[in-house]
User: Fold these one by one.
Assistant:
Number 1:
Amino acid sequence: MSTRWSEIDRMLKTINLLRTGIDGLSSDFDRSYRWNAGWAGEASTPKTNIYDLGGKFEVRAEVPGFSKEDLSVKVQGNYLELSGTRKTEPPQGYSIHRNERNTLSFTRSFTLPADIDAERVEAALQNGILRLSLAKSAAATPRQIPIG
Amino acid sequence: MSETAMTKKADTQIEPTRQLRSIVPEVDILENESEILVNADLPGVTRENLTIHIDNGKLTLTGTRKLNVEGAVVWEEFGDVEYHRVFSVPQSIDTENISAELHDGVLQLHLGKTSAAKPKKIEIKTS
């Protein structure tokens, strides 16, 4: 009986070892886009960051090769939707040696931690990065309360 | 330096300095009769932070991106990185005839071919 327990114990240790390995893989979040994508798989949606600046959220997304006209942003309550289509068709008369950049057509939606004011959303596109500034609605903005 | 301090130092491995993560950018390589065209996705890289070197038949592309983040992170999928990729350039490329443009985070690199490498039509003589 005791030998059995030690076997189970050894097995569990192996599982733990495997798990740390997997964790290391997924935390390597932007090592490479294609050859070491970890759990993210093929990049079918743009990588996105969300920051909380107290009174507003800032969202940044990697959208290389997209023009202003190719992107659309929708906002409602605490729901944010980004979508876009990029064309990477080769120009006329060229033959293709390598094609890693894919024609990207995506829709990605987020549920933000707080409601946002749809009237006070700003979007800017610079060097292939989309930057959104989303002001929180009055109810969700932190307020200083004086102690009386 | 005391003896204990010396042994302690020997125990610790060489500490790496803070480095940027290195990413291999995705590229498309196209060719026509007069040039090879390389398109690379480099989101967030500005013109000042991008260098292209050609030396000894190797084309090196290096670009850094700094995000200058403010506030607390709610969700994060990308960060400050260094894009780095090396290509072998064939002899048929005229190194004097290379141009590059950067638009919306996409680098377009035009590598012109030497006149000797351009296709030529050969007349067949009949006797």
Number 2:
Amino acid sequence: MISELLIKVGMADLNTAANGEHLKTTGLGSCVGLTLFDPTKHVAGMAHVMLPSSSIAREAPINVAKYADTAIPELIERMLALGANVSRLQAKMAGGSQMFTLPGQTDSLRIGPRNVESCLMMLEQYSIPLISQDTGGNFGRTIELSSKSGMLTIRSVQHGIKEI
Amino acid sequence: MANYNRFEAFEMDVLKEVGNIGAGNAATAMSTLLNKPIDMSVPSVQLLPFEEVAERVGGSEQIVIAVFLRVEGDVPGNMFFIMQEHYALQLMKQLLPKEHLDDGTYSELELSTLCEIGNILAGSYLSSLADFTQLQLLPSVPSIAHDMAGAILSYGLMQYGEMGDSALLIETSFLEDCKSLEGHFFLIPDPNSFDIIFRALGVRLG
């Protein structure tokens, strides 16, 4: 794994990759790292989703990469432009953990599981199969997706490296 | 509502003073606890893009020990006390020399000790702030994590998520004389809390 170009995806950000490039996002907590991959065209996409729904947005214009319901359509759009086909796309996701547990927790602090649910709903809408996931728990993750193999590598402090 | 995107220099100074008073008291508590002189940095108040918040403690993947308290009451917000791993280990060597194994892991007792230290420090930060502003601040029970800074801090930014891509942080650091110990406080008031802080401190809002 040398000299592959690494494309960084920030928080509330999304990006695409092709030609063997890798996509990487770091420090996912309650955020969800959603990845899409077209195995025929070797086109990959990654979104670092922070919130479940843009319906609560109080910003204008909104950052589409931030919300599950807007990030996934945008990511698909960009991948189509690179030659991907929606019917071939495969999804993987990681993150959506709950970093801290507090008694009497309000809904806004249960954001991780809600992000996961919302991403699942969007995938369902586009009939994109979820191949594998590593979500939940109470720890952070860093993920890297290869646009060559579609392999998603997940790194965490407590559980080391895992490939899904 | 005061718009945290466009605070005047004067308002930023008021928030710095908030950090100053809080962290000053916390540093005194730390100094008492360790029986050593503790220095404090000048507080920094900044509107930071989400992406840059974790850079303040060494980057998104930097492994840190963090104690988190959710503050409710008049000024809802999130409070973090964060130490880089090697400083936390250093602290454990001083406080629990018999318990500490030098293998980079933390025992239950060590984590609970660190959590309590965070609780004491954050508690003295918040209670001095409450005294100063005459506002009611109700911190939750503390919760500790040993994980990536990015994953931890993003938890405290959610309230800003729906408003934009940056958050206003009041940050203060302290260090021990010989630099064997360093810690960071992050107070992240909810976006709606600034009006209340300003009003309590006699800032006239335009």
Number 3:
Amino acid sequence: MSGHEVPSLLLDDEQKMLSRTARELIRERAPAARLRAFRDTGDPVGFSGELWREMADLGWIGLQIPEAYGGMGLGFFDLCVVLEQSGRELMPEPFVSTLLLGTQALLLGGSEAQRKSLLPGVASGEIVLSIGYDEPSAPPGMPRPAVAVERSGDRFELSGERAQVLDAHVADRIMVLAATSEGGSTLFLVDPARAEVSVTRQHRMDGLNAAIVRLERLRVGADDIVGVLDGGASLLESVLDRASVGLAAQMLGASEQAFADTLAYLKEREQFDVPIGSFQALQHRAVSVFTEIALTRSAVLAAARAIDEKPAEVPRLASLAKSIASETFLLSAKEAIQMHGGIGVTDEHDIGFYFKRAHAAYMTFGTPSQHRQRWAELHDY
Amino acid sequence: MSGLEAFRKEARAWIRENAPRPLWGTSGSGPFEGYFGGRKCEERDLDLLLWRDRGIEKGWTAPSWSKEYGGAGLSRAQEDVIHSEMKAIGVPRPVAGQGLAMFGPVLLEYGTHAQKLEHLPKIARGEVRWCQGYSEPNAGSDLANLQLKAERDGDWYVLNGQKIWTSHAHLSDWIYCLVRTDPSARKKQLGISVVLADLETPGITVRRIDLISGYSPFCETFFDDVRVPVGNLVGKENEGWTIAKAILGHERSSIGRSIARQPGSAQREVVARARKHLGITKGAIADPLLRDEIAALGMREEAFHLTLARIQQSAESGTPGPEGSVTKIVGSELKQQRYELGMKIAGMQGLGWEGPGFDEDDLQYTREWLRSRATTIEGGSSEIQKNIVSKHVLGLPEGKK
């Protein structure tokens, strides 16, 4: 790629307006401190369905869903504008599960009937989706056991479990990746209300909600396949590319917020009778975080743009965005704690939630080293 | 189609028609590569000379300067388009160097009409090469501490003192110098002026400085009772610090950009070295740890190029963001990382200095690796850049250094 071939990495006026509006509403209605409240009250859902539907009424949830399915018909780039703002406050609402996993799988591989029955509900904030699959960073042997399939003609019987399926405790439909042949896997649409499906809520450190999904001889048909038989792995790879970019946009927002809080603290906190931000040791650390955020923003915007305009560039730019955003968010969160000093390691302060989420996001959809390996393969070395 | 897009088509067509084919793909099109010109220039590459002549005739050596000053009277945005179109096919700018990238823009802003008429056309035509007289032995990062004296004697300034790190002074014709015109000013920034001197003026001595690479782009320049007409003062006497800072701003952005070269070129270079020195196993570079480091470098290079593109786009849209200040820091570190990795890959074959047992590429690479240590020092060290970002972008309070 050279200079002028880089598509626009700038927000247009409408996107800037969307970004501002989203930021204001989220800052006011969804501050990161909610994570503590959800945790301490043992909230059974762990996010606000009411706020989710309100955002759907504003058109944000269906931004990228085509108008034919009740959405706004805008691009993934537009969705990333909202995702970045949701990341600033670590929102636990089902952005990742529903919009980045479930919706993308339907858009990339879903049948017309599947899209028609589910996407309008997603756009209106009524339907939560998720996918159960093997995380690339899961230790060998997880999940135990993988989902097995017994097949007779067009009928399939699924047994097994998937763990840490995001928002599965409230999901209306869960897509489960199962081994349908030697080396082939298929994505099946599963209704968790069925008796053969049990869902056990899990509690993660980072405030995102997840569950273990167990399938016991669950019968599904060809209509329940998302994409094509034995084509699950390649569909999932494309879904995870998009999900990586969307998650990177959230990580970008979170990095920026952690940094903004830190910068404010450096200016107000005094020691030795001066603001600690006047110390060069801290100034230079702050500049390093600022620099990484600037690089990350370019990578995230380029990857988001590629999803809308340059599909051939998506795999490598998605790996770039996920990798650099993971490192930057973790750096921003660690530096935030260090520069906040003692208060930074207390549960009373929100910055700890950023650190926890930074690690969780780092591990999700492939770690930076896994993406570097993929990058090397994509560049043929 | 916007006016700028129409212009892009026009610029693309002209450049592709007029840039000699052998020059394609040879350059990152930065401001400091290609034909430098000047009275001492011994360039013999006919393609470079032809490209220079065509560029001069078109006014595209300095596109945004007015025609009167040797340019084409275009806008800055159009100039950026021209440079990006040159970069797109990897041809150098028709004329390169300090005069165009740093001194010219500042003279345009602060010089008199007569000074511009005298100097700018010669810069645009590559006839006079300029160097910079900034640092002194006791004025490096603390540049305002400079001591080179300029004492008024009628219509003359008499210069005494020493400049150091005067890049390519031995190949240059003129020097723009920061001098101390008021030694008793209450702040050291207040007594500084900018003065221009022809390097052939009696009393100026240039001595080259050998670097650890064995190369010598840098010089020391000594001034011993050098008489310069007062007409060579740029701007007002004792108000040169503002101009100095403006030049440094141009320097920061142009160094960052000049390091950039072609997107992906650092990765390609390092991968080629890895194929040569480490070999390939099942399509992958044989050492998995070095392969991982190459991927990390390639990713960072891509993010840097995307950031440069984003900065340029936001400048074209009229709302430059604060990211420009980080390009020098990131670009110079990236250059070092590239050479460090290339040296790790070469292993023992990177230890050659000259002579048998080492090939030319590896010898050259080692020299460039050594040279790259200077990139985070010259043009304002990374630490000074961080001070600037800290104060002007992050708004952190100034403290003891």
Number 4:
Amino acid sequence: MNTLHMAWMLARPSSSGRIVQLLTVGAYTMVSAMVLIVLGGAWSFTKLEGDAQGFYIPLAAFALVLLVVPLLVLGSSAAKLSARAQDRALSSLRLLGATGLQVRAVAVIQAAATALVGAICGVVLYLALAPAVALVKFQGEAIGTAIFLPPLATAAAVLAVLLLSVVSALAGLRKLVITPLAVATRRSVPMPSWMRAVIAIGSIVVIYTLFSKVGLLPVGLGVLITIVISGFGVGLLALNLIGPWLVAKVGTAKLKKAESPEQLLAARMILESPGGAWRQVSGVAMAAFVAVIGGSGAAMFAFSENDVAGSWEMYLSADVLTGVLVTLSISLICVAISAAISQCAGTLDRQDLYLGLHRLGVDLGVVNKARVKSVMIPALTVAIGFTVASAALVLPFASLALLLKPLTVATVLVVLLAGLLVIRLSLNIADPRRLLADHSGR
Amino acid sequence: MLQNSYVSNPVISARRLLRSYGSTHALNGIDVDIAAGTAVAIMGPSGSGKSTLLHALAGIELPDSGTVTLNLPGQAPVEVDGLGDSARTKLRREAFGFVFQSGLLIPELTAEENVAMALMVNGVPRTAAIARAVEALQQLGLAGMEQRRIGQLSGGQQQRVAIARAQVTGASVVFADEPTGALDSVTGSEVLDILMQCTVGMGKSLVMVTHDRQVAQRCHRILTLQDGKITADDSVVQGPRS
């Protein structure tokens, strides 16, 4: 039997496997559509007039950098879901004597095929959503047909999604190839060290100091923007360092205080992998960061817009606010989708345990509450923690913005809160009471 | 063909149980009583209806027709088949204990937390639940392992944790489905000893599905099923060795 034949045979799943396969295709569809919309939006700035282009394109690039993390998390969730769907079948193949190379090839073919179907659906979704996205206004005019990417760029984006699926499939199956029983091994995850917090806080202090002196440097606007964006990049890396530590700290505190079964289970789920819990909601940190920095920026531009009446700069405040809200929304949608996918995968992965617990008399509602808490506790922690940290980073601007344009700041914060609500609602899709309803007895 | 299996003073009474999956009759008119404080083994070939009978008696699954009545001491009889899903779930966690072949322990939790969880879902505060869980684990020879995660325990130790969870609530009836099926013979024998001590040894009832004749011989009675019917109801002469 050749590798293609094996891949084809394993591609015909059971009924529960079919749900996972549909979810995986759906996940890749969302990843592709989001990537194309984001790139389309950035692409539309190339149609702006010269001076505006010079300002808008670096900002769009900055927004793209911020969106890379949630998009990667979403892509990785889709790839992991795909790998999970194959785990048992591939493990059996390995036990039946298939070589490591054959198992790898089957995994890659299946992941790439699923991703390709999802990516094609994603292009269709992007084209379907484009008319709505085209109504978004920059420089006083709707984006219009500028949202459509050139065919080559669209193909490159699809290829990138395929590549992501292949890399994730290979990474996920590395253990399986080493030992067929590796998938059943559960190892303890070490707690993130406090050194992470020290390094991260140190980096933030350095950036803060650098930013407060940056205006005095004898450099041009281009260099200045590069310094500022690089500083934010380092800041994001620092936040990424502190994130797992922060989540672990909150998880430990919740474990100590846990009184109900769902609180205990949720705290243990978080502490099972603080890094994983952080990655799941890291997009919320990015969103909080964008909300505070971007919201303050939009408010500051609004304060000076009377001086620039008649030039392209008169739209700056509104456009920065639009950009912030769009970045915020996409970032939070990505988190909501990836959290829903991961939770669905988790529920399906553990259906034997959950149904067994139900037989023992544990209400599946308890399990559901624990799952929701295991996502929402880190999400809220990160949202509050990183809003405060970002505000501290740009304290003078943030406080000025709050005083001068409270409505702008309020709008951004309301979108952030709405995003958290969307994340909470998206978790309902993974409710074991619904997802496992066919198996939980009469 | 033996169609009924009555005893006096039953803790569970099942009458005319019918359950079909398509054209297959998993339970085909079974009448059976489970006496309080006794161990009953259910044997039979694969597909004979053993697990379906255990699920029907425990209120996990509802029969297509027939009745299951629970008679707990000092309480009014409960018609299990007349209860809705949430009421049966509540009944299972309050009145019954379960030990399954796979253990069904939550891997994120420690041994003591897995046992305490059975009490916490019944509303016992965490501190009290952990204290009782630790005591139960120590009684089963797991002293010093209370804070280990499930992945850090052997198969036999995991089944002991499952037994501790089944008995910590003070359940009057414990249902076990192939509790030693995944263990080697020596460990299986040790686990069975503990299961007997924690159930019939303490005046509770045990209903156990098993393929293993030697395991079944440890019970008071052996019910043999074939095609959804009880074909034999044998008393074991030497009785259970708890």
